[in-house]
Amino acid sequence: MKKDYIINHGEQTITITKAFAARAADISTREYRELTKLHRDFPDYTIQHRTAVIRADKATYKGLTLDEMEKYIKAQDSSGEGVKAFEAIKVYHTPTGKDKPSYPKVKAWFLKTYPQYGKKEIAEKPAA
User: Fold this and answer.
1) Which residue has the higher pLDDT, 121 or 96?
2) Is 32 exposed, middle or buried (0-12, 13-18, 19+ CB in 10 A)?
3) I need a labelling partner for 84 at 20 to 30 A (CA). Which of 56, 60, 68, 105 fits?
4) What are the CA-CA distances from residue 44 to residues 3, 15, 40, 92 (Å)?
5) Separation CA 15–CA 45 (nearest Å)
6) 2: pLDDT strictly greater than 80
7) d(Cα 73, Cα 2) in Å, to the nearest integer?
8) How far is the C-alpha of 38 from the C-alpha of 42, rounded, in Å?
């Protein structure tokens, strides 16, 4: 279940989501009644908007397409087993009635199977 608000008794705050705040702006909604009840029950608490945590060290894979995955697998696997597995995964994750596989699911399999993809190898400098 998605939580629209979180009550933190230690910091005396009520943190609400952006969507909840937008719905609570209309006085005829359930969210408005919930927010006014929260405010009435906890008059000393501060109501604040939830903010997203942005991680600077998040790994990104710009340019990682299905074709790039296949090229990488071919370069890593000389026996051809990796390509066969990749094709099987693409077929497995293709929804009924669609001609393309689910990219996020294939990408997750690829990154789990080939964790070294995208890692830059640091060349060691010889000691002088």
Assistant:
1) 96
2) middle
3) 60
4) 22, 14, 9, 54
5) 10
6) no
7) 38
8) 6
* Residue at 11: amino acid letter: E
Helix or strand or coil: residue 48? strand
- Buried/exposed 67-84: b ≥16 CB within 10 Å, e otherwise: eebbebbeeeeeeeebee
3-state secondary structure 78-102: CCCHHHHHHHHHHHHCCCCCCCCCC
- The answer for 80, left when phi > 0, alpha when psi is -120 to 50, beta otherwise, is left
pLDDT in tens, 108-123: 999 999 888 877 644 4
Tell whether pTM > 0.85: no
81, two tokens: 């087993």
- Give the Å distances, CA to CA, from 83 to 41, 51, 66, 71, 109: 60, 42, 12, 9, 13
Residue 59 or residue 91, greater confidence: 91
